[in-house]
Design goal:
By secondary structure, this protein is an alpha/beta fold. It is built from six helices and five strands, in the order αβαβαββαβαα. It has a five-stranded parallel beta sheet with strand order 1-5-4-2-3. The longest helix is centred in the N-terminal third of the chain and has 23 residues. It is globular, with a radius of gyration of 17 Å.
Length: 152
């Protein structure tokens, strides 16, 4: 009987941690994102956590690419003093990235609702690099931004 109680308690604790992690990253509508400043101290740091290949196929203007599975080792590239807007293709990787950032003390975290898929479906602006192959190579070498990834 005691063993069952502890199993239940463990499940409850794991569920509570997951819920707490999910609550850390606030949803951000696309309309609210479009209304944010694009430059200056008040502009958010837009973080694309998809693969370099996905990023090179099109990204939100001004976004920086750090794949979600590299984020923990590249935290120095993400400012703590700015709002962070995360996105990926469908939301899963952005959620994982948000958990990593929250665990490391980042507090101003938002997740773009609908991610890049909904962004494209609504014909919102998408930047594409002049040279996608060079962009992918630069990103794979560990550069979050690279001249080769500059938009047309």
């Amino acid at each position: 009987m005691i063993r069952k109680s502890f199993k239940g308690l463990g499940l409850l604790l794991v569920s509570s941690v997951a819920l707490a992690g999910d609550a850390v990253v606030a949803p951000l509508t696309q309309e609210a994102f479009l209304a944010l400043p694009k430059q200056g101290a008040d502009a958010p740091f837009v973080l694309d956590v998809r693969t370099p290949e996905e990023y090179a196929s099109g990204y939100l203007p001004g976004a920086v690419n750090i794949p979600h599975d590299q984020l923990a080792s590249r935290l120095a590239e993400v400012p703590k003093d700015r709002e962070i807007v995360l996105y990926c293709r469908s939301g899963r990787r952005a959620g994982l990235a948000g958990e990593v950032l929250a665990e490391h003390g980042y507090q101003r975290l938002e997740h773009l609702e609908g991610d890049i898929t909904a962004w494209v479906e609504k014909s919102r602006p998408v930047a594409k690099p002049k040279d996608p192959d060079a962009c992918v190579a630069a990103l794979k070498s560990g550069k979050a931004t690279a001249p080769a990834c500059a938009a047309n």
